[in-house]
Structure formats: C-alpha cells, structure tokens
Design brief:
By secondary structure, this protein is α+β, with helices and mostly antiparallel strands. 55% of the residues lie in helices and 9% in strands. The protein has 2 domains: 205 residues, Alpha-Beta Complex (H-NOX domain), CATH 3.90.1520; 86 residues, Homeodomain-like (Arc Repressor Mutant, subunit A), CATH 1.10.10.60. The longest helix is centred in the last third of the chain and has 33 residues. This is VirS_1 protein.
C-alpha cells in the first residue's frame, strides 16, 4: 500500500504566505494539488500528504532552500489544541514526550524519537517514506520547525550541541548557520539535532496543570478520530490501488467498502478529495514507479494503469507532472 495520511493546511498556508510578498499567485503554488482557495478559508479542512507535497514541490521549484524558511514560520501556535497542550506541560521533557505521542496531530512525515548520547539528547527524524525528491526539503522543514517549537515552549532559544543531516551539503549550506547555531554534519547516518539532556527537566513558563489536563484529553480524542479517518482512507487506497488496471468506479468501490456510493463520496469529500482525484493520485504514483524501473514500454504501463489508449495516459501524465512519460524516465 502506498504511504499516505491526512494532515492539516498548516504547511500549505505557510507556503502561500511565504511567496505572497513576492507576488506569486496561489494558482502556481496550488497547481496539481486539488486544493482551491475556498478550502483555505475552512478551519476544518484536511488534505492528504500527497496534496501537501504537491504544493511543496511547486514551492521548491521556485526556491530550493524554501524548507528552511517555512520551518521558521511554524510556531507552536500552528498546532491548535496540541500546541496548547505542549505549552502548558510541566517540563520541556513532558512536552516533547507528548508531541512524540501524537505524530498525526503534529503533522510530521517522520518518526520522531529522543535518543540519549551521554549528556546529549538527539531529537531524531527518521522513517521518511514520501517523495524521495523532497527528502531534503522535508528534513529542513521538520528540523527547523521542531527547533522553533522548542524555543516557543521554553520562552528562549534551545542551545544546540550539534545537527546532523543524512544528505550531502547543499549549495546553500551557508543558510543553515542562520537556523542551526551549532556544528553541522552532512552525509550523516540520521537527521537530528542535539541538546543537553538537563533541558528535559526545565519547567515551562506557561505550565498549567488544569489547562494541560483538559487539552491533553482533547488531543487524545482528536487523535483517535484523526487516525480513524486515516485508517479508513488507507483501506480505500489499498482497495483502489490493487485494481488500477480495471478501476471499479464509485459504485464498485462503495460495494467493496460495504457502504453506499453517496456515503463514499461524502466521506471522501470530508477528507478533501474525490474518487477521481484519489484514482489519479494512485495512478501517478504507480506510473512513477514503473517508469523509474525502466522495464516496461509505455504502452504496457498505460494498460496496467487502466488506460485504453496510450495517448490518454500520456496526456494524463503531462497533466500530473508537467512532462511526458518518456522525459520522466532515467
């Protein structure tokens, strides 16, 4: 099954804000994502990570180092109830443990962990399973935003003892010094930054037992609902992804999900997508895999994806990626 889950519009909103001052239109940044301006006005809108990554890919195409700036904009207040629960935790360590407990609410694409190393603690981001082409962007976005959250919680910058990145030094390495005031290591085994473990015991300035208890309970309930939606979407993706050569249509998929077509459409709408958008997403992901393997001719790939004509597949792929299938091949 392809890896995908639900997330909020937080990151997408920050992307739009970042380029707004430069006069870049929303249409350019939202192109191919299935997100419209009306969605941005709804506080309860949820999107898939595929949609979020499409917007981020558009941003990276405009500016390669944008992940650093976007991460700097992600303050703890961006995370709703989870943000309040973190701020009102008793200690810095308590807040970090709570954040790691609810990755779905944090909206991270990584598996976060705290790894002891003598007197140091490494806050590590691993387990990335999204678009490989956006790995560096997402690491920058993740680690910088975590550093910002830490500073917001403490009411002061968290002194870093080192930062590691599991990719070669980028051309804009000098910009890293603006965000990580510590020694930097590239081509490392992991993506992480370190701090003195004594900070885990640091009391937080906005700690409040009553508020924290209430917010933590609401986070628990929201996480249960959120992950339930993810599980449902995961099942839909799994069923549809297994029959791309002969897609069942809305009625057929609804029958496989043991619900009515109307219910299926309603649930997909609530999750910010439609049957056709989901089918296109899965076809695009499979097409990239098959084209990357460079084993099948394009007409056979078109057949495996359920296109009756190779020309239809070519047109669809250009719409999804901006290039022809033959240009995408290595």
């Amino acid at each position: 099954m392809l890896h995908s889950h639900l997330t909020t519009l937080n990151a997408v909103s920050r992307v739009l804000d970042t380029f707004k001052a430069e006069g870049v239109s929303y249409d350019i940044l939202l192109a191919g994502s299935g997100i419209c301006e009306a969605d941005l006005a709804r506080a309860d809108t949820h999107i898939t990570t595929h949609q979020e990554m499409r917007v981020c890919a558009n941003a990276v195409a405009l500016r390669q180092d944008v992940g650093l700036e976007l991460g700097q904009r992600m303050h703890v207040s961006s995370y709703g109830m989870l943000g309040y629960a973190l701020l009102t935790s008793a200690t810095f360590g308590d807040a970090l443990q709570l954040a790691l407990r609810y990755p779905a609410l944090l909206g991270t694409l990584f598996e976060l962990s705290l790894e002891p190393d003598g007197q140091r603690i490494w806050l590590t981001a691993g387990g990335y399973r999204e678009d490989p082409a956006l790995t560096q962007f997402n690491v920058e976005f993740c680690l910088v935003s975590l550093k910002v959250i830490c500073a917001d919680l403490l009411g002061q910058p968290l002194p870093l003892l080192g930062a590691r990145f599991a990719y070669p030094s980028p051309a804009y390495q000098a910009r890293y010094a603006e965000h990580f005031a510590c020694s930097l290591q590239f081509s490392a085994q992991a993506n992480a930054f370190a701090f003195d473990r004594r900070w885990l015991e640091q009391p937080l300035p906005l700690a409040d037992v009553i508020t924290h208890r209430a917010m933590a309970e609401r986070c628990r309930k929201q996480n249960t609902e959120f992950t339930g939606r993810q599980a449902w979407l995961g099942r839909v993706r799994h069923l549809l992804g297994a029959q791309l050569d002969a897609a069942p249509g809305v009625d057929g998929l609804a029958a496989q999900m043991n619900c009515s077509s109307r219910t299926l459409r309603r649930h997909l709408h609530e999750l910010g997508c439609s049957y056709q958008e989901l089918l296109d997403e899965l076809r695009f992901e499979r097409a990239k895999q098959l084209l990357g393997a460079d084993e099948l001719p394009i007409h056979r790939i078109a057949e495996q994806l359920g296109f009756s004509e190779t020309a239809s597949f070519r047109h669809a792929f250009v719409r999804w990626s901006g290039v022809a299938p033959s240009q995408f091949r290595p």
